[in-house]
Specification:
The structure holds 2 protein chains of 2 kinds. By secondary structure, chain A is mainly β. Chain A has no helices and 12 strands. Chain B is an all-beta fold. Helix content of chain B is 0%, strand content 50%. Classes of the chains: A mainly beta, B mainly beta.
Chain lengths: 118, 117
């Protein structure tokens, strides 16, 4: 069965701390994504990666960075956590479409990491 | 610009009722893709359907059905004879025509469906 695993379901951190959120997928997917989910705002894309060591900014990259050293692992880093980063963080992965106009493939999501910054 | 609107924030129904979740989208692309995802209380979004803009046939999968109407830019989702296990947040999403990770999904704000026993 396909699986996206996020290392922590719940985290509580203090303002200014460095926070690492880890995500591992076992499906050999090329693409990996980090989303943030907030009530009334839906899912917003923070960063994505289409290959090892490649990364692209999403819609809300400020205050975040990412790392993809291996194909299966995509890490989200909060360099200095702030209270407005309290949120649910969702990792996802997908295959790359066959052909230029094949449209995006479906995303497979992890269970999410709920981060509270005090 | 692309946009997805799910105007229903919360819906509550009693088991066995039929329920329709609305999704209205905006896009300038002539080719685009629409998706529905389910997020149960466990938190993991689950893919339900992917539909491209050239395929306007309605889709039925068990108790689930989807009504795609280009004329009204809508892609509505109906659950027939709802069950408690259908309780979840449902997201509609839109993307442009291109493959690859650079073609982002634009998500709606979601509809929380509560099915009461």
């Amino acid at each position: 069965d396909v699986k996206v695993t996020q290392s922590s379901r719940y985290l509580v951190k203090r303002t200014g701390e460095k926070v690492f959120l880890e995500c591992v997928q076992d499906m050999d997917h090329e693409n990996m994504f980090w989303y943030r989910q907030d009530p009334g705002l839906g899912l917003r894309l923070i960063y994505f990666s289409y290959d090892v060591k490649m990364k692209e900014k999403g819609d809300i990259p400020e205050g975040y960075s990412v790392s993809r050293e291996k194909k299966e692992r995509f890490s989200l880093i909060l360099e200095s956590a702030s209270t407005n980063q309290t949120s649910m963080y969702l990792c996802a992965s997908s295959l790359t479409s066959v052909g230029l106009a094949g449209g995006p493939r479906e995303l497979f999501f992890g269970e999410g990491s709920r981060l509270t910054v005090l | 610009a692309q946009k997805v609107t799910q105007a229903q924030t919360e819906i509550s129904v009693v088991e066995k009722e039929d329920v329709t979740l609305d999704c209205v989208y905006e896009t300038r692309d002539t080719t685009y893709y629409l998706f529905w995802y389910k997020q149960p209380p466990s938190g993991e979004l689950v893919f339900l359907i992917r539909r491209n803009s050239f395929d306007e046939q309605n889709e039925i999968s068990g108790r689930y059905s989807w009504n795609f109407q280009k004329s009204t830019s809508s892609f509505n989702f109906t659950i027939t004879a709802s069950q408690v296990v259908d309780s979840a947040v449902y997201f509609c999403a839109l993307s442009g025509p291109y493959g690859g990770a650079t073609n982002k999904l634009i998500f709606g704000t979601g509809t929380l469906l509560a099915v009461q026993p």
